[in-house]
From TrEMBL:
Gene3D superfamilies: Metalloenzyme, LuxS/M16 peptidase-like. The keyword Zinc applies. GO terms for biological process: proteolysis. This is Zinc protease. Keywords: Hydrolase, Metal-binding, Metalloprotease, Protease, Signal, Zinc. InterPro entries: Metalloenz_LuxS/M16, Pept_M16_N, Pept_M16_Zn_BS, Peptidase_M16, Peptidase_M16_C. The lineage of its organism: Bacteria, Pseudomonadati, Pseudomonadota, Alphaproteobacteria, Rhodobacterales. Its cofactor is Zn(2+).
Length: 443
């Protein structure tokens, strides 16, 4: 187990005030701190984000990042198992945690005058977790049951796992966040401790404090509770396997008798938001909305659900929030009597038509207005702002990137969308999936 050392100094680098009143500084041990001021209510959101997720796990130990997230609610050197959450609740707050491919985060939402208590407890479990073999046995059963409920008992979730594993031929994004079941069953105490000791360190973490706080007060508390924790000198550089050039389309038919409605879906590799280069990702946001954002206004919805009545549901989806290459997806659920072959052909026809026809300027203006409103409304949600900054900073973006994103979205042109669409709609870097309940539906 790691030990606490003497307090370390810190270096501050405040940013100019924005609509979110954001201030940043860095402790001398390498821990970054972001303070987002919002004084409308005496409430604070306290979050610690670790720059480690399931895509950073050792080969053969899939699920250990999420497993460790569960284990952090067990005992430490000063807290009993479950005492952390019980203390938060007793003080009128709420807490939880979540794991993604790129990060693991822990948060509490509580009265502003309880911030010091949250820092005291969260900093304690960064270094002083006291898990036992019994904890491993109990919590391993919990995460296995979670997989049963969310994945094994859900044919659509099982299908998505297969499609994602085929889309990423080399990158760890092809491994489910919760882990492959056969590897989850083998996770042991040492797996969790090795992961914890190496990656749960201040120089691999970002503290986000949002709400009714003053930056100087947060700085003093951060120095007191997090600044005393030593940096991890052996922290490795964050290098992941890259995707090789993909030269052939992959097709999968997933059959499960529990499937209630057959459908066709296709995922393409797509660029993520990169620091200083977010324009392609912004254009993909528009592309998803134009193709499949609304059944009433999108190209897929109007053509397949209303004009031809080929489908009962259509969708296009994209999320640029990713450290490495992400995906762009399109889905069509055919209407009664329409085969999957016919549905896929109709889907491809809509995509082809989109690439040939000009984009309606009125639709562009409408989407710009929707995105502008969404960005304005986001400023009203302190928890959402904290998550926005935490996710971005753990996925290679900067404070400036987050703050420039709304303007980049507004600057997207029709030419930007057509250019990125031509780049993404490459069948050689795609997986097409048919999800059916029986062999007959795949004919």
């Amino acid at each position: 187990m790691k030990r606490l050392f003497a307090a370390l100094a810190f270096v501050t680098a405040p940013l100019a005030a924005t609509a979110e009143e954001v201030t940043t500084f860095t402790l001398d041990n390498g821990m970054d701190v972001v303070v987002i001021e919002d004084h409308r209510a005496p409430v604070v959101v306290h979050m610690v984000w670790y720059k480690i997720g399931s895509a950073d796990e050792p080969v053969g130990a899939s699920g250990v990042a999420h497993f460790l997230e569960h284990l952090l609610f067990k005992a430490t050197d000063v807290l009993e198992s479950g005492e952390f959450s019980a203390t938060v609740a007793a003080n009128g707050g709420s807490d939880n945690a979540f794991t993604s491919y790129d990060y693991t985060a822990y948060f509490q939402r509580i009265a502003a005058d309880r911030l010091e208590l949250m820092m005291q407890m969260e900093s304690n479990r960064m270094n002083n977790l006291a898990i036992t073999a019994d904890d491993i046995e109990t919590e391993r059963n919990v995460v296995l049951e979670e997989r049963n409920q969310r994945t094994e008992n859900n044919p659509n979730a099982l299908a998505r796992e297969q499609f994602r594993a085929a889309l990423y031929q080399n990158h760890r994004y092809g491994v489910p966040i919760i882990g492959w079941k056969h590897e989850m069953e083998q996770l042991e105490l040492q797996d969790a401790l090795d992961f914890y000791d190496l990656y749960y360190s201040p120089n691999n973490a970002i503290l986000i404090v949002a709400g009714d706080v003053e930056p100087d007060d947060v700085k003093a508390l951060a120095e007191t509770y997090y600044g005393v924790i030593p940096a991890e000198d052996a922290l490795p550089e964050r290098i992941r396997p890259e995707e090789p050039p993909q030269r052939a389309e992959r097709r999968i038919t997933f059959e499960d008798p529990r499937v209630s409605q057959p459908y066709v879906t296709r995922s393409y590799l797509a660029p993520e938001r990169d620091s200083g280069a977010q324009k392609e990702a912004a254009a993909l946001v528009y592309l998803a909305e134009l193709l499949g954002g609304s059944s009433f206004t999108s190209d897929l919805g109007r053509a397949l659900q209303f004009e031809s009545q080929t489908a009962i549901y259509t969708n296009a989806g994209y999320s640029g929030s990713s450290l490495d290459d992400t995906s762009f997806s399109v889905t069509v659920v055919p209407a009664q009597g329409v085969s999957l072959s016919e549905a896929e052909a109709a889907m491809d026809a809509v995509i082809a038509d989109f690439m040939e026809a000009p984009i309606d300027p009125e639709r562009m203006d409408s989407i710009r207005m929707q995105l502008r409103a969404s960005e304005v409304y986001a400023l009203d949600n302190v928890n959402g702002l904290a998550r926005r900054y935490g996710a971005a900073l753990t996925q290679g973006l900067t404070i400036e990137d987050v703050q420039e994103w709304p303007d980049i979205l507004q600057s997207v042109t029709e030419a930007d969308i057509k250019a990125v669409a031509a780049k993404v709609f490459n069948r050689d870097q795609s997986v097409t999936g048919w999800v059916v309940s029986n062999e007959k539906e795949a004919m």
